[in-house]
Amino acid sequence: MTPGDKLKAPEPKRGDLVATMPARADRIIGFLNTRDIDQGQDVLKAPAGFDAWLRQERAFTGPSPSEEETEAARVLREGFRDVVAWHGQGDAPPAQELDRLNASLVQYPVPFVVSPDGFLDQPQPARTVADALGALVADVALCQASPAWARVKVCQNPACRWAYYDGSHSATQKWCSMAACGNRMKARRHRARRRSVSVNMDQKER
Predict the structure, then answer these.
(1) Which of 179 and 26 is assigned the larger pLDDT?
(2) Which pLDDT value is given to residue 121?
(3) Which candidate in 29, 75, 104, 181 could, as Cys together with 163 as Cys, close a disulfide (CB 3.0–4.6 Å)?
């Protein structure tokens, strides 16, 4: 799969309606996709990349992040990737992983201000790395309280795990791209079934 394939929206089934991705879901997916597992690329590999991403995507105006802050951002990102995957697949989160993510979240108080219209809002721009990541934590919390959360997903191909927004009417897509990961996983399951049948036949013949 090429990066271009992943940037395409998943193909809706024929006759499906396509849901529009809310900005909050877009920000969550953008954070998760700072790492491309399939291509071996990571925007947050070093502080310079993290700094550039913060300033471009989060209107960040503070000092450049340290090595420790960059590592902490990677831990938060992978924790949230697991949260999305657990939710999408209906799996129970492992206690050890939950403990690690909860320990990470303590570092990021969620910043809110009261807007002129009397509603809670997130302050912009963020002036510290903790505030910028706290705003991302708020995005996840608020998205979980909306119908959009059921559509924020992680590709079920373990070699991919690209985050995407399932815009189909049924919201049941499992892969970032049916043409790439979907067909790849189906072929893998087919080969596994054939191997299983072959092993069973060999055992019966003995």
Answers:
(1) 26
(2) 78
(3) 29
